[in-house]
Amino acid sequence: MNPGLSLHQYLDAHAGTDPIRRAVIEVVAALAQASTEISDLIRSGALAGITGQAQGRNADGDVQKDLDVRADRIIRAALEPLPVAAIASEEAMESEILYPAAPISIAVDPLDGSSNIDTNMSVGTIFSVLPTPRDIRATFTQPGASQLAAGFFVYGPQTSLVLTLGRGVDIFTLDRGANLFKLIRSAVQIPADTAEFAINASNQRHWEPPVQAFIEDCMAGASGERGKDFNMRWIGSLVAEAYRILTRGGIFLYPADAREGYGEGRLRLVYEANPMAFIMEQAGGEASTGRQRILDLAPGALHQRVPLIMGSRDKVRRLERLHMSPDIKSEKNAPLFAHRGLFRN
Ligand code: AFP
């Protein structure tokens, strides 16, 4: 597909005359417009009164920043006139029914990575487009494999959109002069193998044995059983980590850990893990809890958390094998393992 193609031209070509596809592209176009407004706020930061300061907590107890609330409002206003049956947001306890007869519904994390706003780091908006089922109450309990489209905006040095409509992954960057998103990469493929992992290593003592073993092997580098050195990244912003993986491969882990409230990890299934998993698979990667494919999970609750391991296919599969390996489970209590520790003192 020719570079420089505008998002509108790209979306029109996808939709044709199919009414559901047309509804999907109208939503993507509206989210793109909303993202330029959010991007402008972020670029202005304190000059636009954006402090990154906590304003309280959202419905599920997470710290809510001023821009979380403003981004949510901007997105809802952009979607309001469109054929959307229901919307679910990280910033609201319950989903909201808009036009029940509409063919699609949206789940959104209006501003992911907001704890990074006051440090001038990349943050983003993540969205998932689902078909509206016969029983609208079941909209957000559909497995991620039902998604019609998914994507995320990264508000970084460039404002970019990573998008899948179910036929591969394409990336667009905002041309501010023309106020248009333009295609910069099409048919993105994640390298199958990689030498880069992303995990918050400060939680190492809380991880389950399979994750401990995987990271330990990476840290052992060329002298260990992997026979090669690895690099580590941790940005604290899911969209930035995903964008890097789509650019040069790698694996991202936010696993379950033993801390209170982290028994199912930190990330939300419906509006973070599912859209990311759809994108990863469409780009030739994989996304798993370590035991199950993310897209096969049927959400039990709107803000349900899930362990997320995603990125280069071979690495995700290695972690799944480790989770299935009975030896690893028993090794956790073995004296040797107890003293191995990730960072030898
Ligand atoms: P915030 O939206 O609260 O900043 O959380 C961002 C996030 O959900 C995800 O984008 C990061 O990968 C992850 O949390 C970082 O979590 P830690 O702060 O525990 O490392």
Provide a descriptive summary of the structure in words.
This protein has an eight-stranded mixed β-sheet with strand order 4-3-5-6-7-8-9-10, with helices on both faces. Strands 12-11-13-15-14 form a five-stranded mixed β-sheet, with helices on both faces. The protein has a two-stranded antiparallel ribbon with strand order 1-2. 32% of the residues lie in helices and 22% in strands. It has helices at 7-15, 19-44, 66-79, 209-220, 238-248, 269-282, 313-324, 326-331, 335-340, and strands spanning 54-57, 63-65, 84-89, 96-97, 104-112, 123-131, 149-155, 159-164, 169-175, 180-185, 196-198, 231-233, 251-254, 286-288, 308-311. Strand 9 (169-175) and strand 10 (180-185) form a beta hairpin. The chain has nine helices and 15 strands. Residues 330-345 have low confidence and may be disordered. The chain folds into two domains: 7-185, Fructose-1,6-Bisphosphatase, subunit A, domain 1 (Fructose-1,6-Bisphosphatase, Chain A, domain 1, 2-Layer Sandwich), CATH 3.30.540.10; 196-324, D-Maltodextrin-Binding Protein, domain 2 (3-Layer(aba) Sandwich), CATH 3.40.190.80. It has 345 residues and is of the alpha+beta class. 1,6-di-O-phosphono-alpha-D-fructofuranose binds next to loops.
